[in-house]
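Q: My labmate handed me this sequence with no annotations at all. I'd like to see what the chain might look like in three dimensions before we decide whether it's worth expressing. Could you predict it?
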Amino acid sequence: MKLSDLPTPCLVLDRTVLARNIDRMAQAVGRLGVALRPHMKTAKSIDVARMVLANHAAPLSGITVSTLAEAEYFAAHGITDILYAVGITPHKLDQVAKLNAAGAEVKVVTDDLDMARAIAAHPGRHHALIEIDCGEMRGGIPPGDPQLEAIGAALGDRLLGIMTHAGHSYAGRTIAEMADIAEAERNAALAAARRLRAAGMACPMVSVGSSPTALHARALGGVTETRPGVYMFGDLFQAEIATVEPDGIAVTVLASVIGRRPAERRIVIDAGGMALSKDRATESAPHDFKFGLVLDQDGRRTLGNSLVARANQEHGVVDLDTTIDFRIGDRVRVAPNHTCMTSAAHDRYYVVDGGDEVVAVWPRIGGW
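A: Here is what I predict for the chain of 368 residues:
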């Protein structure tokens, strides 16, 4: 089967690029001397997970997920050391307990004293990390928050340690800036861990991570693991901030030309907001790629700066930077702004190895 045989729109995953991205991050983390707990929220695929876990350039400590559906899926495929890195709620504790009773080791996260008490009181086998806010101002408590010790004490022997996430590293525009954010992330994590230990509590796990900070950190002394995720696939935004190399975008959307407006140097494709997402991450980056950069069918940048300028539900309107005369049914590929959002609409990857031959079809998990 070749790309020209596929239904459109669909996801194309270049396994060669994926392998290169996986190795680049593993080498970086390995040099820092910490364990890698890759975040599977973007890939949501056991086949991708197996590739990541097969690379031993860095020690591995399990995986990270963002939904319990992912936790169930990966546990069913034999990956049992799982960090559910979204704040847990009371009604989800039974689901986690069921997974752990079946042999998994799903760790949960909280930043709330009442929730810590609920975790400790639940009869299931739960272990938890306290989420620390290192500057993103999303989940977590600051490392100096007076409730930190109270949350740790409430968890009691369920306490495993702390975790933090420097999502604000995406605002960095130079490697030096992201290295500085990585150091601030590390310092926040270590400050919280020191406070818990000073209060007589064990804190064996100190978990940090985003793709930019994992890749560009100068040092991670005192940290036990890092949790990058989007680096596996990359996207236009990640290429803009140097998390992946310019040719490091492993996932693209294959689309067909369904309309031509030659006088306006414009075409219409069958990949709109539903297939590409309407994420405009690159709007704040050095180069604004609108709703995606249009490549030729082979994934090459032969169409210049041709962009999806408008994304309706099933229509993508492309402003062309080329004099190529497209025909109805011709194929192009679109590099996404935010691969996590783009991939979420699709249920499988059509896998290639740098060419147009489809060498595998890999399913992906969805839902919550």
